[in-house]
Amino acid sequence: MIASPESPVDTINRDILAELQTNARIPFAELGRRVGLSTPAVIERVKRLEENQIILGYRAIVDPAKVGLPVRAFVKVTIAGDRLTKFSALIKTLPEVLECHRVTGAESFMVQVALRDVGHMEEVIDAMMPYVATNTSMILASPVPWNSVLPTLPGEKRTRKTGTA
C-alpha cells in the first residue's frame, strides 16, 4: 500500500515505526534490512516521518525505582475556572511529574508522579494544593508500562502481538 497525502503511513513506514519503537538505536542499515529497503531509502523515510511529526523524538526509558524513585502514583486533579492555566504552568515545574494529561470526567488532569517515599508524595501533593483538589492512586504494578503506537491501514484488522521480547 502506498501512503496517501492524508496519511503518510504505508506498510513500510508502519514497519519502520514498529522497529524504531522497539529499538530507537537500531542502525539504519539493520533497519533497512528488516523492512526491505536500502540504507539511503530508510534514512529518507525516517527523515520524512520526523518532518511530518509522526516521530516526535527519541528518548531513553528509565526505571524510576532504580534511580531512587520507587513510589509511583496517579494524582487525579480537579480544578475550576481560571486556575487551569495556573495549574498547567505549575505542573511543568515539578520534577517528580512523569506525565500530565488534561482529561474529561470528574477530574481536570491526570498526573503520574515518581517519588522517593510517602513523605515525598505529601510534599508534591502539597505543592499542587493552592490550585486543586486531588485524589491519589498508588501504582502497584504495570502489566503494560508502555506500548507502541501503530496505525491500522485501510482494510486491516488491528491486532497486537503478545509474548515476551
Summarize this structure as a short list of keywords or feature phrases.
165 residues, alpha+beta, Arc Repressor Mutant, subunit A, Alpha-Beta Plaits, 2 domains, 4-stranded antiparallel β-sheet, 5 helices, elongated, disordered N terminus
β-sheet strand percentage: 15-25%
Question: What is the share of helical residues?
Answer: 25-40%
The SS-based structural class is: alpha+beta
CATH superfamily of the largest domain: Lrp/AsnC effector binding domain/regulation of amino acid metabolism (RAM) domain
Tell me how many strands there are.
Answer: 4
How would the global form be characterised?
elongated
Order of helices and strands: HHHEHEEHE
The CATH topology label of the largest domain is Alpha-Beta Plaits
GO cellular component, one term: cytosol
Pfam families: AsnC_trans_reg (PF01037), HTH_AsnC-type (PF13404)
GO biological process, one term: response to amino acid
Keywords: DNA-binding, Transcription, Transcription regulation
Account of the 3D structure:
- There is one protein chain.
- The chain has 165 residues and is an alpha+beta fold.
- It has two domains: 11-51, Orthogonal Bundle (Arc Repressor Mutant, subunit A), CATH 1.10.10; 64-138, Lrp/AsnC effector binding domain/regulation of amino acid metabolism (RAM) domain (Alpha-Beta Plaits, 2-Layer Sandwich), CATH 3.30.70.920.
- Helices cover 32% and strands 16% of the residues.
- A four-stranded antiparallel beta sheet has the order 2-3-1-4, with helices on one face.
- A hairpin with a 6-residue loop joins strand 2 and strand 3 (109-115).
